[in-house]
Write a structure and sequence with these properties.
about 375 residues, alpha+beta, 2 domains
């Protein structure tokens, strides 16, 4: 073969290689944004069902969301259930996290992006570790500042790497255990409450009742001789104790003593038959509450004929009557399922309402003081 032919073949081969490289680069540019690094955790999307725990380090504490047979819970709170939607959102957010643009590698500038280590005094990040049921790490990252411009994005970096990135998606990590939990326990408004009974271990007892459903004010029942009720506003405050009642902490009730000889007990009865009994105690420098919830059909105020009363009993093949109390019955069941077996630390104001005593509602019935005005005459 002639030398010129060999040279021609070599040139042609070199052109093919260059073209192949160019095509590969073009395909890469089509799948990655300029300056991007692709998915932060390649392959995690196929392992999302293997995630068995989410460890969160907020700098002040480290807690773990763990998967159980039927639910997820906070390990440090005796596996108290968390909201599954937040678990799913966090896992998928990490699995789909795409590195859009490389940012600083300078550790001195990490703080400006809130990407210092979680324990840092300033500019600390949120540490996040996803692991499988053997404890093997599937993903580990530090989550920093949120960027609102151009969509929900956050600065992130891998642990033990100085390179920081702008990541796609808004990984909204719950910073504390309560951020993962449904903290609202009850949503029973004042206007639904018919009767409140408060009892204390020392024998102190008080009963407040609304005589008509249209009445807003509570009446203090069985006022002792020589006493009188305070202004309605003093009595009515307890009626709102179960409205948007939220927790501040939670632990197993079995670890505490809620015996009636030690606990104050407040019982709420609603016009639609929901009964909530709250026992409260003091322990470990906190006040704790335990809930018992049931539906009592005998307490329902029948303001209109029930659906059952309109049924022709002589008719054959009539359809089954719908439960007229289904909503209240379901509400009681839902609250009972959520709270059974747990003790809660509550907002101080709500706890004070639940633990009021008779002297908070009545006072000595003394004659009103004279206003001091007299018909004075002057000497002429």
């Amino acid at each position: 073969m002639k030398r010129n032919s060999l040279i021609g073949l070599a040139i042609a081969a070199a052109v093919v290689v260059v073209l192949a490289v160019m095509v590969a680069q073009q395909r890469t540019s089509e799948t990655k944004p300029a300056g991007g690094g692709g998915l932060m955790f390649e392959g995690l999307i196929g392992k999302v069902n293997s995630v068995a725990s989410i460890e969160v380090n907020n700098g002040d504490e480290v807690f773990t969301i763990t998967r159980k047979a039927q639910s997820w819970g906070v390990a440090e709170k005796s596996d108290y259930p968390v909201q599954f939607d937040l678990v799913k959102k966090t896992i998928m957010g990490v699995a789909e996290l795409e590195l859009i643009a490389a940012k600083t590698k300078d550790p001195d500038r990490h703080g400006a992006l809130l990407l210092n280590t979680p324990e840092a005094e300033e500019g600390g990040s949120i540490g996040l570790v996803l692991a499988d049921d053997t404890g093997a790490t599937l993903a580990s990252l530090l989550v920093g500042k949120t960027v609102r411009a151009g969509g929900e994005r956050r600065y992130v970096r891998r642990r033990n790497e100085d390179q920081t990135w702008l990541g796609s998606g808004g990984i909204d990590v719950g910073k504390t255990p309560l951020d993962w939990i449904e903290i609202i326990l009850t949503q029973i408004r004042h206007d639904r409450v018919r009767k409140i009974t408060l009892s204390h271990p020392d024998g102190d007892h008080a009963v407040l009742e609304r005589m008509e459903q249209s009445d807003f004010d509570f009446t203090y029942m069985e006022i002792p001789d020589g006493m009188r009720a305070l202004a309605p506003s003093k009595l009515n405050s307890v009626g709102g104790a179960l409205a948007f009642l939220s927790m501040k902490d939670v632990r197993l009730a079995s670890d505490m003593n809620f015996d009636p000889t030690d606990a104050s007990v407040t019982r709420f009865e609603t016009w639609d038959g929901v009964v909530v009994t709250v026992s409260t105690i003091e322990a470990d420098e906190k006040k704790w509450a335990r809930f018992e919830v049931e539906f009592d059909e005998s307490l329902v105020l029948e303001t209109v004929p029930s659906a059952a009363s309109d049924v022709d009993e002589s008719a054959e093949g009539t359809e089954e009557v719908e439960d007229p109390h289904a909503v209240a019955r379901e509400e009681a069941g839902t609250i009972s399922t959520r709270t059974r077996g747990w003790a809660y630390a509550l907002d101080d104001h709500k706890m004070d309402q639940l633990r009021k005593r008779s002297e908070d509602f009545i006072e000595p019935d003394l004659p009103d003081e004279a206003d001091g005005s007299e018909d004075l005459t002057t000497n002429q």
